[in-house]
Amino acid sequence: MSAAGIAVPADLSKRVSPGVTARNIATLAWRNLVQIKHNPMELLDLSIQPIMFVLLFAYVFGPSMAGSVEAYLPVVIPGIIAQNALFAGMATGFGLNTDITKGVFDRFRSLPIARSAPLAGRIIADTAKQGWSMIILLAVGFAIGFRLETGPLALLTAFLLLLAFAVLFSWTSVYIAMKVNEPEKVQIFGFVVIFPLSFLSTAFIPSTDRIPGPVAWVMDNSPVTQLVEAMRGLLVGGPVFDHAMIALAWGVGISLVFAPLSMRAFKQRA
Amino acid sequence: MTDAIQAEGLEKRFGETQALAGVSLTAAAGTVLGVLGPNGAGKTTMTRILATLIEPTAGSARVGGFDVVKEAHQVRQLIGLTGQYAGVDEMLTGTENLVLIGRLLGRSRPDSKARARELLERFDLTDAAERPAKTYSGGMRRRLDLAASLVGRPQILFLDEPTTGLDPRSRNGLWDIVRGLTDDGVTVLLTTQYLEEADQLADDIIVIDRGQAIAHGTSDELKAQVGGQVLELRPVNEADHVTVARLAGELAGTDPEVRDGLVAVGITDPAIMPAMVRRLDEAGVLLSELSMRKSTLDEVFFALTGHHTDDLDAEAGELAEASKKEGAPA
To answer: What's the pTM value of the predicted model, to 2 decimals?
Structure first.
């Protein structure tokens, strides 16, 4: 190396080790969570919305749907938990798009960190936020009469299933995040797609018996219905395995389509 | 290996658009290479390739001796990047932003905090250290962004239009910082739309247009080529502009440009102005306007390419033709 050349340190690593990858992911998850400290509105969002939804659905629709508030809670609490998970997936896309349009993502990618860390860190942070929302939902439910009919192990399984589905499903919002140039557009997508998707399911109703044929067919075959039914089984009892497997199969299918599409869209926009 | 950055025939195509059409460049260690060009010339694309954010369609580049595609991870350990859009997390405080980078670079928490304090102090952000970056002014955000790119003490720094959109005071502050960096031996690649900025900071300048390098040299060499200053003359009697253009052309030794009765000519020697006034006096031509100013990027472009940075091709071509006909000595 000539004297005028730059002094390249001898200890440059050739690749990111698994240990460093884990630390990168943890650091970026921390970053996404510490944001809440400066934006208390976000925590409010994660808390108020679930509380509002449970109370509104239980007291407004409960009596008409199931005869009483108490009778409706086993139907609607698992449903709202599932719907919440879908919206949390949108939050992942929203945050990702903000990072990309603001140049933060470029900064991360110019650093010698694991390529997967920015996305993985965000997903882990969003998972933690979702855990928080689920606790709030269950707490409000308990306060007004919802009871867990299964056990702690089933509750844990419900949480894991929910996260798995949410992570797999969030590839749709990652894809949108790669395609649009403003975070707000990710939100619009959320409302236009997630709202009908969550309502065209059994999330808020006991069954599709009285729904007109073609609509009922769509609802019965929706991945959201499968997730909702599995959640119900795990929280208040009923069949679980088939519903959970079908829901996960949907999730895997969605991610198999949207993960490569997202990668391609990202390469094109870069 | 004396060159910190070397690129060979870089090409980048986005679908139908050819963003880079074969750019080669080198930056010697410890120098500032200015990449000058208008919007859309390919500056950002080039920076992104060199900073390992995107891969070139063709050509190759080495940064710090490492290939930007095959040895991207090594390159990333040597570089810092400050993009056109300040890449700071607006929700985090100044300190948190810098600690985040420190942690990602594998520093311990106390070490990251100490480095953050040091950089905030250096960039005059200590008072704002505990405020979220969204409350920062444009200039403060750029300084924080630059600080973030320096956390790892990079040996090679990419600054993509670091002063675009800044007020003159913030811009001068940033210039001082960049000068300080080169004193530390950092190699800087700086892209800019401002001729003055390249002139102030760069040891070497490469001018790019439509994805191609169209000129290369030191600031003085470029000025000698295109004229560092512009002499503008407007005759009282519009019919005199042919005479004015002819005299200006003779004295400056370059073709003047005539636009709406105003004759503009690039000059390198300030003595041309008084000489011009004497010649006009002898010829009995009166002027309503006479001024001398620094060349703009647009004029550098016109001198180098024959088209303006913002004109359509046809229009620029016609103007160039017209000024040649009118300005050419009989």
So the answer is: 0.81
